[in-house]
Amino acid sequence: MQNSVKPEKLLFMIAAIAIVLGAMRVASGVLVPGLLALFIAIVCTEPMYWLTEKGLPRWLAILLVVIVLLGVSSTIPLVVSGSIVQFNQQLPIYQERLDELMFQSSGWLQQFGYTAESLQTIFDPSALLGYVQLVLGALGGILSSYLLIMLLVIFILVDVPRSLAAGASTSGQIIRTVQHYFAIKTFTSLLTGVIISVWCMLMDVQYPFLWGFIAFLLNFIPTIGSVIAAIPAVLLALMFNGAVSALVVMLGYVIINFGISNGLEPRIMGQQLGIRFVWIFVSLVAWGWILGPVGMLLAVPLTMTFRIMFDNHDDTRWIANILVPETHRTGLGKE
């Protein structure tokens, strides 16, 4: 299929994709709440239609789904919003404490030919804390758009037709794939967040529920998400509980994330993603650049959506073939 694509047509396609992605980056402030609402609504359509099949009128089914959604999601701001504010207020203190630790370890570092200044060129604690603040700021932005997102979810549920998710149509494939992905990923992420919270409480790390919630969210980011989620908890353990405690906290993160992400999750998710690992990593960078930190959370479902769309058109099926492993190509277009 690749050989049949004319060079000039390929250039036009690349230019069109670049223009669309650039426009999405400019409009990211509007797109992020809309995309979050869209994916939440896609997940909620299944229980909504299950209730209607049981005989409930559609308006009542939507009402029940929205009440459950509000009940679950409203606990998030109550649990973590105070921790986010307090963490941001304490950030200068944490920065000062890290600088003290770097200075105190300078004598030990000099035995290996390093100074505190030279180490800071490799490992800059202020940069790490700044990145943590950026992630928390993005989380705060999501919480500030909470009402808008919930209203968009309701509007989508009211208007979405049942036939959209049925059959072998492109929309049906996308909805079923996204539902499957989010159902499993939400379960494994929730399990990760709960265990991380308990682990941080046992290790006497400040804001354990916040780090559990961060672990829950960032578990949606393949590979690097669990690493980013561990940074603030390990740093706090290092600052206030010592190096041994920080090492134990980090070891707990490694065991928990490895056991769930590499042990449990592949067993129940199987090979449903159907995307090469290299393209998953590229999608994290691309969607993170376009939509910010939230784009990294949505990178995999967005990439799966485009993969299905490309596969259902003859002119772009060759792009889908590039995205998927060899073992998945025979199934493209027949999901």
Molecular structure report:
It is a single chain. The chain has 335 residues and is mostly helical. 80% of the residues lie in helices and 0% in strands. It is built from 15 helices and no strands. It has helices at residues 7-26, 28-53, 58-104, 106-110, 116-122, 125-144, 146-159, 170-202, 208-218, 224-241, 243-269, 277-291, 293-297, 299-311, 317-323. Helix 2 packs across helix 3 (58-104) and helix 14 packs across helix 15. Mean pLDDT is 78; it is low at 330-335.
Write out key terms for the chains shown.
80% helix; disordered C terminus; 335 residues; mainly alpha
Instruction: Please state the CA-atom Rg, rounded to the nearest Å.
Output: 23 Å
Strand percentage lies at under 5%
The biggest beta sheet is recorded as: none
Query: What's the order of the H and E elements?
Result: HHHHHHHHHHHHHHH
Overview in brief:
The chain is an all-alpha fold. The chain contains 15 helices and no strands.
Write the layout of secondary structure elements.
Blueprint (H helix, E strand, L loop, with lengths): L6 H20 L1 H26 L4 H47 L1 H5 L5 H7 L2 H20 L1 H14 L10 H33 L5 H11 L5 H18 L1 H27 L7 H15 L1 H5 L1 H13 L5 H7 L12
